[in-house]
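Read as chain and fold; for instance:
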Amino acid sequence: MNNVASILILIFLAITFLQSGYDKLFYWKDNVDWLKGHFDKTQLKNLVPLALLHILVLELISGILCIVGCIELLINNGRLFGFYGAVFSCITLLMLLFGQRLAKDYDGARTIVIYFMPAVMAVYWLN
């Protein structure tokens, strides 16, 4: 097991994004309503449903790629899917960070940085 750290981070990212995607998918209206208030003073105020859909798709892609990456690492030490999962995770987190900064939610932005650090580590290790 040479890839334990990479597998653990990929599992962490998969849980993070699949749970978040599940929440967005099954509680769509609640999320849209809350986000409309969150972004009411930004340029995104009229684009909340479209932006949320975009984030949902990226989260699901990130989570699925991370799961497949774990399986690939376990089966044949392959790193391709895990690498792409980590890259998509970073892109997703950067988009979330942009939204939080745009909404001037600096505490929320700070929280995203906590998730970004292991995602970047995964990109580095799986590259």
Remarks:
- The helical segments are 4-26, 28-38, 48-76, 80-102, 106-126.
- The first helix runs from residue 4 to 26.
- The CA atoms of residues 25 and 56 lie 8 Å apart.
- The two ends are 18 Å apart (CA to CA).
